[in-house]
Write a structure and sequence with these properties.
The chain is of the alpha/beta class. It has 2 domains: 6-169, Spore Coat Polysaccharide Biosynthesis Protein SpsA, Chain A (Alpha-Beta Complex), CATH 3.90.550; 177-274, no CATH class. The chain has 8 helices and 10 strands. The protein has helices at 19-24, 43-49, 64-73, 90-101, 177-196, 206-221, 228-253, 265-274; strands at 6-12, 31-36, 53-56, 78-81, 86-87, 107-116, 119-120, 129-136, 156-158, 167-169. Strands 1, 2, 3, 4, 5, 6, 7, 8, 9 and 10 form a 10-stranded mixed β-sheet that branches. α2 links the parallel β2 and β3 (53-56). The longest helix has 26 residues, at 228-253. The termini are far apart.
Length: 276
């Protein structure tokens, strides 16, 4: 295993429209490893034609198990995780090579530039949207929970966030509202299972309180309103996702919903305003 080389890891499922542009943006890498969950389209064929090493992983509803599998199979000491709907600008590629060559850290957090509804969203917790994407083996791993944010080990570095030094994210799910709804419907099932594994105690007021807090956080506290109509739609959609997770959690694990006997009706609205 070469300690000065990097493997770009890309996880895929039916990404024939994205995979070529993604791979072409990381051709500087020492290895491009595509872990495919048995795509029904030409994803694997396109990846292999462009020189990527392709491995198969059983199809699961979310990426984390396949991502950990890919990390274990990477030939190099450094791993750079890239999604198929992301592109790596040349400046960022050079920065990654520099970090690896000079051993600047164990884990590097890189900003993500989210292009949603055809617009770069710069507020509402979506910029700079930092993720730990470049790391040495043994210093980062995901749990098997959906949307897990792993805990790094060792020296960390945050790469300066600017437009040319960030991962460009063109999600096919988030280009239209229908994509949001479809992906949220799928992911919320796994989020509900994760929620059940915690010490969370559901109360009926949470149906209003938790989605409202999410909307307030994204649209008001973190300036989502500055992204105009798109910012408003996104704040509502993220709030809806919180509601969907709660609804599925209750449906599956607590069909007999606890009463809120400790709170009067007016208290619900007081809590919403006070954000308690």
């Amino acid at each position: 295993m070469d300690k000065k080389k990097v493997t770009v890891l890309i996880n895929t499922l039916n990404e024939q429209d994205n995979i070529a542009d993604c791979i072409k943006s990381v051709l500087w890498a020492d290895e491009i490893l595509v872990v495919d969950m048995h795509s029904d389209d030409k994803t694997r064929y396109i990846a292999e034609k462009l020189g990527a090493r392709v491995l198969l992983h059983k199809r699961v509803g979310y990426v984390e198990p396949a991502r950990n599998f890919g990390i274990r199979k990477a030939k190099n000491n450094w791993v750079f995780v890239v999604d198929a709907d992301e592109r790596i600008p040349a400046e960022l590629g050079k920065a990654v090579e520099n970090i690896v060559a000079n051993d600047k850290c164990d884990v590097c957090w890189i900003a993500e530039k989210n292009i949603i509804f055809g617009q770069w969203i710069t507020h509402g917790l979506l910029w700079p949207d930092y993720h730990p994407r470049l790391f040495k083996k043994g210093h980062l791993a995901w749990s098997n929970n959906v949307h897990d944010i792993p805990k790094p080990k060792g020296k960390e570095l945050y790469l300066d966030a600017n437009e040319n030094n960030a991962i460009a994210h063109y999600s096919r799910f988030y280009s239209i509202v229908t994509g949001f709804v479809e992906s949220y419907n799928r992911y919320s099932i796994f989020e509900a299972d994760t929620l059940n594994s915690t010490k969370y105690k559901f109360r009926r007021r949470h149906y209003m309180l938790i989605p409202f807090r999410e909307f307030k956080l994204r649209f008001l506290t973190h300036g989502g309103y500055k992204d105009g109509h798109h910012g408003l739609r996104l704040a509502i959609l993220f709030a809806f996702y919180k509601f969907l997770v709660l609804a599925k959690y209750v449906e599956k694990y607590h069909p007999r919903v606890p009463h809120d006997s400790d709170r009067s009706k007016w208290r619900y609205f007081y809590d919403l305003v006070r954000d308690k």
